[in-house]
Amino acid sequence: MISVPDTSRTAWRADFWAPVASFRDPLFPGLTHGLPLPPPSTVRGLLAAATGEPTEPLAFGMAAHSEGGGVDAETYHPISADGTNPAVSGRVRAIKGGMTIRDRPFLAHVHLTVWLPGTDGDRIAHALRRPRWPLRLGRSQDLVHPLKLVRTTLRPATAATVDHALAPAGGHDVPQATVHRMAASVSTDRLSTAWSDYLWCDTPTGPHAVRDAYEDDKGQAVWLLVP
Fold this sequence. Notes:
The structure is a single chain. The protein is globular, with a radius of gyration of 19 Å. Strands 2-3-1-4-8-9 form a six-stranded antiparallel β-sheet. The chain is mainly β and 227 residues long. Helices cover 10% and strands 41% of the residues. The termini are close together. The chain contains two helices and nine strands, in the order βαββαββββββ. It has helices at 40-51, 118-128; strands at 9-21, 61-76, 100-117, 145-161, 167-168, 178-186, 193-200, 207-215, 221-222.
């Protein structure tokens, strides 16, 4: 879902960088298939860490890409639902269904830009200057570094530079774009997830026709995504 443009809006543009990050695709249970960018739900968790709130349901725009990636070996300690192999100090025994080693795809030098409009954007921008909790992008060890925080104006657009912006399905017709089904938001008790289809390009695109989009002061296309 998106917030359909009507008039220009002021917003904050926040840039982040992470040396390493990994985003497992939950639509592949039992496998460690990785996503090429953070899903919106992960970005919402990042913003909530800054403010200290349980969730941040505001509409925001985002763009993301990485400079590379690879595969690492990671130790998993799954807890048995029936309690037959309980965790001790965060570890379980290496039995069938217990501790195991799996390949885990990761991304290197992850760049993330988030556009935060309105009064909620002002509130979050203030919190990003002194976050309540450590800022992470994905796993607990994947720390993210805030870079720049600047004011911008989002104007309704029919053409803009798409590049690595995350767009809803139908937001543009860039031929090299791929569709990714990702979590838009996760409930605070983690029992329910809202899913949505998004368009994303892994290479720069230049200007293209866009639908239901804004552009910022740099001519970058922005879609305000809602939970």
